Amino acid sequence: MISIVLTTWLFFAGNHVRSLxxxxxxxxxxxxxxxxxxxxxAFALSAAAASLPLGRVSDLWGRRRVILLMILGxxxxxxLMAGVSTVVWLFVFMALSGxxxxxxxxxxxxxxxxxxxEHRRGQGYAWLxxxxxxxxxVGPIVGGILIQRAGFSSTFLVSAAAFAVAxxxxxxxxxxxxxxxxAESPAAETAIxxxxxxxxxxxxxxxxxxxxxxxxxxxxxxCGTGTITGIFPxxxxxxxxxxxxxxxxxxxxxxxxxxxxxxxxxxANNRNxxxxxxxxxxxxxxxxxxLVPRQPNAVMLTVVLASGxxxxxxxxxxxxxxxxxATSAALRGVAMGxxxxxxxxxxxxxxxxxxIVSQYYGYLWGFGAVSLLVVGGALATLLVQERA
Length: 388
Fold this sequence. Notes:
Blueprint: H1 2-16, H2 21-28, H3 33-61, H4 63-82, H5 87-115, H6 121-150, H7 153-173, H8 176-180, H9 186-194, H10 202-206, H11 209-230, H12 232-238, H13 243-259, H14 261-268, H15 271-291, H16 298-325, H17 329-361, H18 363-387
């Protein structure tokens, strides 16, 4: 499990150490402010499109092989970006990076479910998502320092180096033995033993109401979290908050999101409890989103966002544990691929919805519209759970 966590941290740190450099490179290539967002969209949509098929490939071909291949893809994208000279190729390489992420994330999540015993899966997903979140946090910090001291091109080389270390760690320590005997519950093991020798079909997963409920909740949740990272900084600037204040608020939001996952891990192992925590967390986050533009000062704004972050971290750990427990190893990769697909789809949908509504009706309605999407995810989850 330690090797999976370390590899995940290195992968996401490598991905995001260049996150600040891509807009700067795009600007140097003549891209206007209104067009910069398309590079993030290319990444998110590529990741969403790749998640399901590559998750299924990991079920059939093996987790380790897919992880190694996706790390190579991410490192190659960084190296190619370092020498890019046209906007079109930068767009293509961002899409390649998204494809690599879309394959890596569900495979690492599936491998965690294969490796960690059922009664400890909540802790496993807590540490896995914490490592990814840590990479998301450390990467931009390192990238900012590199840009200031050595220019933005250096970030692509450091990014490639991080991917290289991740590949070495995965090649050396993630072994086929880890995926040779999945840590299934007794019910899942019985189902596997009595099942036909041919691989289960994807259609069987679409009849799994527990997985569908988790996907719907993830989609609503991702619309909200994407809005926080994509729209909140613009709202804060236009509300006359200083950049350092915005950075502090976002830092506390990220820290709350990350740290809550550790105590939530053991709680997520209890199915009855996590089925209550998932919709409750979504509703709590929706409330926090709706309250963001109503806050009179930075202190209250920080309290609201930190509270929302606690709900977000709780929901993500519970959702991953639910998907893992609801599937056998034979379909866990594609199930996590569906999670990753709706996650990145939500990241791509939430900010445009909030931005368009805010442009015409103000931020109060913009954040409110996305909070309704999160509520929709909670209600859909409750409806599907009731019929399960």
